[in-house]
Amino acid sequence: MTSSVNSTAxxxxxxxxxxxxxxxxxxxxxxxxxxxxLRKGEAEITVVDPLPYMTYQPFLPEVAAGSIEARxxxxxxxxxxxxxxxxxxxxxxxxxxxxxxTITPPVGEPWQQEYDQIVVTAGAVSRTFPIxxxxxxAIGLKSIEEAVAIRDRLMSNFDKxxxxxxxPERDRLLTVVVVGGGFAxxxxxxxxxxxxxxxxxxxxxxxxxxxxxxxxxxxGRIMPEVSLATSEKVLAELAQRGAFVHLDTQVKGAxxxxxxxxxxDVIPTDLIIWTAGVMANPQVVRGSDxxxxxRGRIVTRPDLRVGTDEEIVEGAWAAGDVSAxxxxxxxxxxxxxxPNAQHAVRQGKLLAKNITAVLRGEAPRxxxxxxxxxxxxxxxxxxxxxxxxxxxxxxxxxxAHRGYHGLAMPTWERKLxxxxxxxxxxLLGRDLVNLQTVxxxxxxxxxxxxxxxPAQPPVTPPAEPRGAGKEADxxxxxxxxxxxxxx
Length: 487
Ligand SMILES: Cc1cc2nc3c(=O)[nH]c(=O)nc-3n(C[C@H](O)[C@H](O)[C@H](O)COP(=O)(O)OP(=O)(O)OC[C@H]3O[C@@H](n4cnc5c(N)ncnc54)[C@H](O)[C@@H]3O)c2cc1C
Prior knowledge:
The strands form 8 sheets. The chain has a 6-stranded mixed beta sheet, with helices on one face. The protein contains 15 helices and 27 strands. This is FAD-dependent oxidoreductase. Residues 449-487 are annotated as: Disordered.
């Protein structure tokens, strides 16, 4: 690593520098709101994220099902953060004692960036366990790339299965296993069931009974965000649709395309989706000198400054899935806000206001947000809704899901693309295009591209027979030897 320090502070008074680590939900909203609340020249905002976009993760199940175009469910940072400097790179270290962050770009050497205020909003990653085969054979659902790859895998498997006679290999290709019965898991499971049913119309060789859907959940229920009664309705509806949830069951292995369960059952499959929990971004947390609690999250105060009631870490802020923010409504798990977008968005907005307040010598406010309830999309026309004691499933819940998320998508530019796409699908049907070859885009070019001919081996003149020098030296003899060598 180079020891270069990126600093523009040469003469006082310097403009305070705010460094936002992660431009996802919480980071994007922090920067977006800061751009609105800060006066011109009041502070410099820099957002660092390895991705040039914020991902609207609640849309990932619908992207996997082909109901939302992948690009529409992300928000380009450079287009919408006009007053911020966007750096497409990773933060790999935070030395808050010296207010220096290590930024590692995809090309070139890492450097150290000075800051006055740091906002850590680096989110969470899929949390897995050391189960044989999972790391190598399963796929998560935290990024747009994973959602697209899941959609394309299922569709490619339909293409392959349609060419096979009934039997174990065809069954394997048409079997989907999802691990984890939280919101994300149930949504992607139900959405893929809906996609598979839609695909069947295009494959006369395959029937509904040829497709197999299994979700594995270690606990005795699914979707802890909704009431038990609502979750049981979801279970019953999934079973009706040929999608089976195995409760109180654990995955023991996923080697050679076989998912082994704690019940002793084995499910052969070509698609294992892992959605069994998340953990605070370990790269950013472990690479920093900020305080961390036992579950690996950054210790955060209700006013979103890093630290505790007793000790404030001056100049450091955190929000979203990477942070342990006390839930002052008393509703959180273990006293902390649960990792969801509802909190991340609102914490990001308040964080911007609080930084602005602190820069102006005012007091920051505490974060208080009472859960709004939950909506889930479970395939076209199917959903689940829960607000307080009111819970139901069906088309109305699905409309609530689409209405809420369509409007919650940041920026009108993005809302219109998503809602426009839904309207198009209503008229034109679901977009069933499989772009799996994007993962190997040069395959046709490579197959037919002209290549230089391989280099010719050097010509070695035949050894001169002893005593026959004169004949072998003749030009015709040398030409004949060359021709023989080049054949
Ligand atoms: C499939 C799915 C469905 C969901 N549905 C819902 C829902 O319906 N309702 C709801 O409330 N919540 C939902 N959630 C949860 C919600 O999306 C998350 O809680 C929310 O995204 C958290 O926001 P965040 O800003 O903390 O993290 P993120 O939005 O994940 O953003 C973190 C950012 O940090 C960046 N980053 C990572 N590493 C680094 C690094 N080293 N340096 C710099 N940047 C880095 C990432 O690229 C990313 O852009 C869902 C999640 C998933 C996966």
